[in-house]
Design a protein that fits this description.
Length: 260
């Protein structure tokens, strides 16, 4: 990859997103560097997907600036989009297409030429050899998830965006995906993922931003957030079995009220 490690690959500055009168994202700022996994951690409705949609250029922010590898998603959209990979929902794919057909289709969309043997190589890398002849609709959840991730990476983008990539996966598939993300990080990709799993934030994220009601309320490595708040009685109101966890900090910062 051309971009060197630790360089800022995504910069979000003072981002605000509204849907009519609803302010979903309020003056959010953060950056993702090459070679790091950055997590946006927040409860349902916090504004995670809205933030990602603005980064993807799918919705126009009310205000703020977003640059990808230095290119503005607003005024240099083609250059910016060429440098990011987005994991699409499995429902975006035609269920009757076979996996190699899907890979070729998206390679074509991104202008990537798949040389002889490349598709087999990709299937092998995804541990999908057995699924090569199957239709997308016949795959298991974990297999579909691997195909959507492969497509996000097909043009080797420096920035990879994953919206709740592990929700609904079993522990084995989740662990495998974490390892794939770590391998992507080793290759110098910057990864922005959203999650509401503390375990995920602690296990794979180098840095996280806790977002709630559209605002970032803490942004640091998970261990630093823990250390900052673990002895703060204003934040830690309760813990389970006497052991304070990142989840206690998260609940302390975002409240106990259940979100729709
Ligand atoms: N298309 C939309 N129209 C109106 N309101 C929306 C739309 N998408 C999201 N919202 C609202 O914006 C807020 C943030 O939503 P979202 O970004 O999807 O949160 P998250 O991904 O963290 O669950 C919520 O209050 C949600 O109801
Ligand atoms: Mg969401």
């Amino acid at each position: 990859m051309a971009e060197s490690v630790h360089e800022t690959i995504l910069q979000v500055r003072d981002l605000s997103v509204s849907y009519g009168p609803i302010q979903a994202v309020k003056q959010v700022s953060f950056e993702v560097r090459a070679g790091e996994i950055f997590g946006l951690l927040g409860p349902n409705g916090a504004g995670k997907t809205s933030t990602l949609s603005a980064v993807e250029g799918l919705l126009k922010p009310r205000s703020g600036q977003i640059t990808i590898a230095g290119y503005s998603i607003d005024s240099q959209a083609l250059e910016a989009k060429a440098r990011m990979g987005v994991q699409l929902q499995a429902t975006s794919f035609q269920p009757e297409l076979r996996v190699p057909e899907i890979l070729r289709l998206y390679a074509g969309i991104y202008g990537v030429s798949l040389k002889e043997g490349k598709v087999d190589q990709m299937l092998e890398g995804l541990k999908l050899q057995d699924a090569a002849g199957k239709r997308f609709g016949e795959l298991s959840g974990g297999q579909k998830q691997r195909v959507t991730l492969a497509i996000a990476l097909i043009h080797n983008p420096p920035l990879v965006l994953l919206d709740e990539p592990t929700s609904g996966l079993d522990p084995q598939s989740r662990r495998q995906l974490w390892e794939r993300m770590e391998a992507m990080r080793e290759r110098g990709h910057g990864i922005l993922l959203t999650t509401h799993s503390m375990e995920e934030a602690e296990s794979v994220c180098d840095r996280i931003a806790i977002i709630d009601h559209g605002r970032i309320i803490a942004s640091d490595p998970p261990s630093v957030i823990m250390e900052t708040y673990r002895n703060d009685p204003e934040v830690i109101k309760a813990s389970r079995k006497g052991r304070i966890t990142l989840e206690d900090v998260f609940i302390g910062l975002t409240g106990r009220e259940i979100r729709a």
